């Protein structure tokens, strides 16, 4: 019997490589989203630290109108930056969702092809086992016929000698 060959092996290999590429893209998008989130947390920490320093300074020495304007400017910029980062994260979430759909579809494609390959392999194994049974049956039949022919020849010689 000829060696097993899955007719869609090239398609399976292509889908697997595409799946891996798209998974890497999904990981990259998730990493970028995490970086945006970290930047937002950094802005929030920086603003909290500035607020604490401002409150401490206001409680101990007092603050000037210029310092109040400065802190308000920083608060406004921080809020604007947070809003922008929120928008960036929302946009990244949309990209991640789309990419996840692509990855899930490719995962299903690959699994489907792998199941088909497995089924074809089982069919091949069954066919090979059937051929082996046929070969053994043929050998046993041939041996049986040879044995019967030898017995008949022995009987003929024994009858001829008697």
In short:
It contains two helices and no strands. The protein is an all-alpha fold.
Describe the fold and architecture.
- With 162 residues, the protein is mainly α.
- It is 92% helix and 0% strand.
- The protein is built from 2 helices and no strands.
Distance between the termini: 51 Å
Main β-sheet description: none
Rg to the nearest angstrom? 40 Å
The proportion of residues forming helix, as a percent range, comes to over 70%
Structural class: mainly alpha
Unreliable sequence segments: none
* Shape field: rod-shaped
Structural descriptors:
single chain, 162 residues, mainly alpha
Secondary structure layout:
Layout: H1 9-60, H2 65-161
Helix pairs in contact: 1-2
């Amino acid at each position: 019997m000829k060696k097993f060959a899955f007719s869609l092996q090239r398609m399976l290999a292509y889908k697997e490589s595409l799946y891996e590429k798209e998974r890497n893209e999904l990981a990259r998008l998730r990493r970028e989203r995490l970086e945006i989130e970290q930047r937002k947390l950094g802005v929030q920490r920086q603003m909290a630290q500035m607020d604490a320093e401002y409150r401490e300074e206001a409680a101990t020495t007092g603050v000037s109108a210029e310092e109040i304007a400065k802190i308000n400017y920083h608060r406004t910029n921080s809020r604007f930056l947070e809003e922008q980062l929120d928008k960036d994260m929302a946009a990244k979430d949309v990209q991640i969702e789309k990419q996840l759909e692509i990855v899930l579809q490719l995962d299903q494609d690959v699994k489907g092809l792998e199941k088909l390959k497995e089924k074809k392999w089982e069919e091949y194994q069954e066919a090979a086992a059937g051929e082996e049974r046929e070969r053994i049956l043929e050998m046993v039949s041939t041996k049986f016929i040879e044995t019967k022919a030898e017995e008949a020849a022995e009987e003929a010689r024994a009858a001829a000698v008697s």
